[in-house]
Amino acid sequence: MSVATGALSGLLAGPTPQAPPHHTPIRRNLAVILGMAVILALAGRIIELRPLELARDVSNIGIFLKGYLHPSFANVREYAWQCVVTVCIALWGTVLAAMISVPLGLLGARNLAPHPLVYLAARRVMDVLRAVNEFVFALMFVTAVGLGPFAGMLALGLHTGGVLGKLLSETIEAIDPGQMEGVAAVGAPRLHVIAFGVVPQVMPNFLSYILLRFESDIRSASVIGMVGGGGIGFYLWDTIRAFNDREASTVILLIVAMVMCVDVVSSRIRRASI
Amino acid sequence: MRSIVSPVISLDRVTKSFQGRRALDEVSATIHPGQFVAVIGRSGAGKTTLLRSLARATTTDAGAIHFGDVDLAAVQGPALRAHRARVGMIYQQFNLVRRLRVVDNVLVGRLPHLHGVRRWAALARWFAPTERALALRCLQHVGLVDKVWQRADTLSGGEQQRVAIAKILAQDPRVILADEPVASLDVLNGRAVMDTLRRIATSANLTVVATLHHVDYARRYADRIFGLREGRLVFNGPAAELSDAVLPEIFGEFPMPLEPAAEPTLTEAPAA
Questions:
Q1: How far is B85 from chain A (nearest CA, A)?
Q2: Residue B261, CA distances (Å) to A260, B192, B232 in order
Q3: How far apart are CA B191 and CA B198, in angstroms?
Q4: Is the pLDDT of residue B4 over 70?
Q5: Does the A76-273 domain belong in CATH 3.30.450.70?
Q6: What is the nearest CA distance from B253 to chain A, expressed in angstroms?
Q7: Domain definitions of chain B by residue range
Q8: B20: CB partners within 8 A, 6+ apart
Q9: What is the three-class DSSP state of B72?
């Protein structure tokens, strides 16, 4: 033990004080660890987790991938164009999502909702939009507007609108209430209280969430063509299903390149805007 | 300046409880137009609750508050907003919109007075040149014209409080309610803020009600002093009558351990 020579030295005389009794919850911690282990073991059985089989037959993947080593560039122009379509689907899907999320987010924030029932209704609508996969929405819209990118964009917008609305409402619930009270206290109308007391506080986060969701919408848009939602996803599905390995390889390479490009650009904008 | 005088504020046995504890206990008092009232008392004595009740930021359980002939218990919706427009609020933490520029914060005070197209345009932070000119005038009054384009969160505490004063000048209220306006400021900034409040009150014949936990500030600036103790109004008299002898009635017996509010001999109020 080091000897104190400074301010602490004056405190070392006399007996060490007794701390009030305190129990480390060892038993509870053990129970939590055991419970987690049981749940994981059961879940592993259900998903047929067999790591030994993976180790034994991992070489089969190599055989499968062999066809992918020689991508074909015969149709690369059409694939590239479909990548552009994919980006456009994500772009408009995100814009639609942002438009949907603003009213839902405002009404679904506990501190802004005009009535608890409105709050609950907005929350449930957002829950449903988030729970239903964009693929399911795409299948639904295909019946209305036919196969193509428009259906895909509507599907993406609806699902992402629920996600962005939830994020927005939670951002609004975390604002500094004093700044809002400072606007409400002058007797400003309700919309003005939101425009001056809330919007400036949530704007940086909201913009960053929109960009973040745009990045994830690009990934969704690149597969939504599988169910007729337009974009590169159609060719991904078509070439893989036909075992047309060389074509599928080209499509996958293009998707990877597109996602990487968009991620880089978007995250740069995101960082610059904060 | 305005020819319309501020209303008489009357409190009649105002009572408010939080979870069974009485924050205000049958408080009755009258505040005359143009009076500068300081509300003093220890933390939790009900000062802020009294102010929030006057601002109608909270409702009371029993008793009545009248502004002129307006019964605050009855105001709702547009009438409540009209009441708030007539009452300027100053807060300990300033409550400016931190990410907005100084000028926009001052223009917030104009929001209740806009009509028609201007009201809608304000949602996009567009204000008519006359409104902007008014905001500049208000900033000039508190000596901050050169900070007009700066973001509010780049200013010091004293400057932010002065912007908050410019904002309520733009709001053009008849009554100013100030909740610990100087508790977050150092002595010089605190005096500057109190001087400004006093000057406005005198020149426009406004009524000011300010909670203060430093007795010295109350004595120096107020016409009348309310002393609250555990929700009850235990002192109500002119500032000159607040002698050291009556302080224990408000703050309890001395010495109180580690209670800065309970030091009446303090000549210079320190920054909180």
A1: 5
A2: 61, 21, 18
A3: 10
A4: no
A5: no
A6: 32
A7: 9-94+174-262
A8: none
A9: coil
Q: How does pLDDT run across B179-200, given as a tens digit for each residue? A: 999 988 888 888 988 998 999 8
Give helix A233-241 / helix A245-273 axis angle, nearest 10°.
150
Selecting from B55, B82, B124 the residue whose C-beta is nearest the C-beta of A185 gives B55
What is the pTM (predicted TM-score) of this model? 0.82
Question: Sign (positive/negative) of CA torsion B215, B219, B220, B222?
Answer: positive
Which chain B residue is nearest to residue A202, measuring alpha carbons?
A: B99
Radius of gyration of chain B (CA): 19
Neighbours of A2 (CB within 10 A): 5
Is residue A143 packed enough to be buried (19+ CB in 10 Å), middle (13-18) or exposed (0-12)?
exposed
Record: contact A185-B89, CB cut-off 8 A: yes
- Class of domain B9-94+174-262 (CATH, top level): alpha beta
Q: Domain-by-domain residue ranges, chain A?
A: 76-273
pLDDT tens column, B71-113: 888 888 899 999 999 999 999 999 999 999 999 999 999 999 9
B99 touches chain A (CB under 8 A): yes
Tokens 């949530």 map to which residue? A202
Token pair 């508050």 in the structure block, residue: B65
- The closest CB to that of A182, out of B87, B95, B124, belongs to B95
Residue B220 CA to residue B227 CA, distance in Å, equals 15
Q: Annotate A101-139 with b (16+ C-beta within 10 A) or e (fewer).
A: beebbbbbbeebbeeeeebeebbebbeebbeeebbebbe
Quote the CA–CA distance of B51 and A36 in Å, as a whole number. 53
In this structure, what token pair is assigned to residue B174?
Answer: 């008849």
Tokens of A73: 């560039």
Contacts of A181 in chain B (CB under 8 A): 57, 91, 95
- B65: burial class by Cβ within 10 Å (0-12, 13-18, 19+)? buried
Asked if B112 and A188 come within 8 Å (Cβ–Cβ), the reply is yes
ipTM of the predicted structure? 0.85
